[in-house]
Amino acid sequence: GPLDLAAELLKGDPQIVRDPYSYFSGLHEKYGDLVYSDFGIGSFYITDNLALIRKVFVTEPRNYAKADAYLEAAHFLGQGILNSEGDFWQAQRSMVQPAFSKSRLAAFAHSMVQTTDAALNRLGQATDVSELSMHIALENICKFLFGRDFSAHEKVIREAVHFGNDFISRRIQMPIKLSVYLPFLKNLRFFFHRFELDQILYK
Q1: Environment class of residue 93 by beta-carbon count within 10 Å: exposed (0-12), middle (13-18) or buried (19+)?
Q2: Does residue 202 have a pLDDT over 70?
Q3: Helical H runs in 55-184?
Q4: N or C: which end of the chain has fewer CB within 10 A?
Q5: Exposed, middle or buried: residue 83 (CB in 10 Å: 0-12, 13-18, 19+)?
Q6: Are 73 and 66 in contact (CB under 8 A)?
Q7: How far apart are CA 198 and CA 203, in angstroms?
Q8: pLDDT attached to residue 190
């Protein structure tokens, strides 16, 4: 049967947090290159096999569809490379490829280290590791997407991205999803924040 990863996580094995790479490498040693798991909210595969990863993302991407969760993410992220499929995705991938040159990645890696160090320097005695990790990830994404505009509009961008991320995450977990276009207060706030980001991105 499939690996019950949810049950594994609930066991509270500290290695999952302390050394996730070793933990998941151990799964591959035990179950093979392709680990199938039913996580309760959906089934998925885990692999560290570079040939399989290349097959999915480079040689045969048309054979693999993205999960329904990406449809929800599209409300916030639009039809970008993260959410698109097929020929449109291939065209977008070719267009953004220059942004992932070795020099650009090295600069971005340096920025990530600075962001992480700054966050760690602000730590108190009690810290929510999940919240801290999300903060660091969103901070890096904002700097990468908005560049110099991030410092000029930091408060607006930070609030909009955090609200949008929380809004979409909650929708993904909903068993029954009402239309995002219904005039509920949270929906209206979501579209307001999305509008704010659009104004900065496309000015």
Answers
A1: middle
A2: yes
A3: 69-77, 86-96, 102-121, 129-146, 149-152, 154-173
A4: N
A5: buried
A6: no
A7: 8
A8: 96
Do the Cβ atoms of 37 and 61 come closer than 8 Å? Answer: no
Instruction: Give the lowest-confidence range in 10-24, 71-85, 183-197.
Output: 10-24
Q: How confident is the model at residue 167 (pLDDT cuts 50, 70, 90)?
A: very high
Q: How many CB atoms lie within 10 A of CB 108?
A: 15
Please report, for residues 96, 116, 138, 169, 192, the alpha-carbon distance to residue 71 in angstroms, rounded to integers and kept in the order given: 21, 30, 20, 12, 20
Is the confidence at residue 5, as pLDDT, over 70? no
Which residue in 106, 198, 117 sits closest to 160, CA to CA?
198
Total H helices, total E strands in the chain = 11, 2
Q: Which two tokens stand for residue 15?
A: 């290695």
| Model pTM score | 0.63
Burial of 29 (0-12, 13-18, 19+ CB in 10 A): exposed
Q: Hey, what are 86's tokens?
A: 């097929």
Is 35 strand, coil or helix?
strand
Give the residue among 149, 58, 61, 51 at the shortest CA–CA distance from 97.
58
Which residues lie closer than 8 Å to 128 by C-beta, 6 or more apart?
A: none
More confident residue, 71 or 190: 190
Confidence label for 60 from pLDDT (cuts 50, 70 and 90): confident
Specify the residue for token string 């509920």. Answer: 184
Query: Across the strands, what pairs with 69?
Result: none
